[in-house]
Amino acid sequence: MEWIQMPLGPLQTNAYILYNKNLNCLIVDPGEEPGKIKSFIDKKQLKPAAIVLTHAHFDHIGAVDAIRETYDIPVYLHESERKWLGDPQKNGSAHFEGIPLIKGADPDHLFSEEGIVSVEGWTFQLFFTPGHSPGSVSIYFKEEKLVISGDALFQNSIGRTDLRGGDHDLLLKSIHQKLLTLPEDTYVLPGHGPVTSIQNEMNSNPFLHGF
């Protein structure tokens, strides 16, 4: 499997495009700039299978409908945020000046259980990692030694918890119980900023010490 990190939009939210030898691809968090996403897909001649969302804040969903309609693919999201795509109050786009209101279509499928899941031919382990938002999930590919953490865990930082449904203590609990239990050589692909690793965050992330 190969993957690319693609920072998009004014907040430089990281979208991820994962693809295999058959050129099937999974699109995670297409937050903005659908043309940039389409350009990469077309250049590589990829075949999109689905969109998976780590959560439904506005900066992670801005290009969802454009990509969904272009490739006629389903969108997967945790059930706790099933109405967020179409509600600017819930997805946060109504609360930031200069941000267009996002009112997208509902997700096609909802995650309701943790564990090994299959999404349109892709198999990975799903962790519920709430705290930044109530429906935040992390996506773990064991063989590739990588986890897409959304806005739960960043390099030397953690997600903000002052938005709708945020809970600082719950976020720290999610990180410690779900992410820091992964092998230390696991790459962490965050929702913002550079790629890091479980080992790096265990050793140097100031927000995780003393919990």
Q: What characteristics describe this protein?
A:
211 residues; Metallo-beta-lactamase, Chain A; 6-stranded mixed sheet; 14 strands
Question: How would you explain this protein's 3D organization?
Answer:
This protein is of the alpha/beta class and 211 residues long. The chain has one domain (2-208): 4-Layer Sandwich (Metallo-beta-lactamase, Chain A), CATH 3.60.15.10. 22% of the residues lie in helices and 30% in strands. It contains 6 helices and 14 strands. It has helices at residues 34-44, 58-61, 64-71, 88-91, 168-179, 198-204, and strands spanning 2-8, 13-19, 24-28, 47-52, 75-78, 109-111, 115-119, 122-128, 137-141, 146-150, 153-154, 157-158, 187-190, 196-197. The strands form 3 sheets. A 6-stranded mixed beta sheet has the order 1-2-3-4-5-6, with helices on one face. The radius of gyration is 16 Å and the shape is globular. It starts with a strand and ends in a 7-residue tail after the last helix. The model has no long low-confidence stretch (mean pLDDT 96).
CATH topology type: Metallo-beta-lactamase, Chain A
Count of helical stretches? 6
Helix content: 10-25%
For the secondary structure, the number of strands is 14
N-to-C CA distance: 35 Å
Described by strand count, sense and barrel closure, the largest sheet is: 6 strands, mixed
CATH class: Alpha Beta
**Contiguous uncertain segments of 5+ residues:** none
Helix- and strand-based class?
Answer: alpha/beta
Order of helices and strands: EEEHEHHEHEEEEEEEHEEH
Strand content: 25-35%
In CATH, the homologous superfamily goes by the name Ribonuclease Z/Hydroxyacylglutathione hydrolase-like
Spatially, the strands of the biggest sheet line up as 1-2-3-4-5-6
Arithmetic mean pLDDT: 96
Rg from Cα = 16 Å
Shape descriptor reads globular
Domain Metallo-beta-lactamase: 12-192
InterPro entries: MBL_Glyoxalase_II (IPR051453), Metallo-B-lactamas (IPR001279), RibonucZ/Hydroxyglut_hydro (IPR036866)
EC number: 3.1.2.6
Keywords: Hydrolase, Metal-binding, Zinc
